[in-house]
Design brief:
Blueprint (H helix, E strand, L loop, with lengths): L1 H12 L8 E2 L2 E4 L2 H9 L5 E2 L3 E4 L4 E8 L4 E8 L11 H4 L6 E5 L8 H13 L3 E5 L15
Parallel strand pairs: 1-3, 2-4, 7-8
Antiparallel strand pairs: 5-6
């Protein structure tokens, strides 16, 4: 989800008068799927230096089973389930050049869920806009985020 948003935003940014620099904070394994993801980020508008390559964990993948009236997903979350905000430099994340933070695949990032409220509140306090794509909660517990 976050990779797709980053790539589409970069393609759009490339057509603007002033190029927007995008940063993806994520992780992949050191496997073929991870290399495919990292290669997708090979764009002049994308800084992929914050994509952590974990040699001991595989990259997640998702298979879509599509029918005439419905679809189903089979997901192996791989290293993304362990992703935490403290893996990244907070000064860089909340720098004055940051204008928007998008969180993709919230329900696939178990370890990140506890940090999201603090991250969103800090972004709000610094006038950074945010968006969140929750995906589907396979546990069907539907964790809610309340911001005041």
């Amino acid at each position: 989800s976050a990779l797709n948003i980053t790539v589409h935003a970069a393609n759009y940014s490339a057509h603007l008068n002033e190029i927007v620099k995008l940063h993806l904070l994520s992780c992949t394994g050191k496997d073929f799927q991870g290399q495919v993801c990292r290669d997708a980020l090979d764009h002049r508008c994308i800084d992929r230096s914050r994509v952590i390559v974990n040699e001991s964990v595989r990259t997640g993948s998702c298979i879509v089973l599509s029918g005439a009236t419905d679809r189903s997903f089979i997901t192996d979350r791989g290293c993304i389930k362990d992703l935490k905000i403290d893996w990244f430099n907070q000064k860089e994340l909340f720098s004055t050049s940051t204008s928007h933070i998008h969180i993709g695949g919230f329900y696939n990032c178990d370890a990140l869920q506890d940090d999201v409220c603090n991250l969103l509140m800090r972004a709000f306090e610094q006038n950074i806009t945010t968006s969140l794509n929750p995906q589907y909660d396979a546990t069907e517990k539907w964790v809610c985020i309340y911001l005041y």
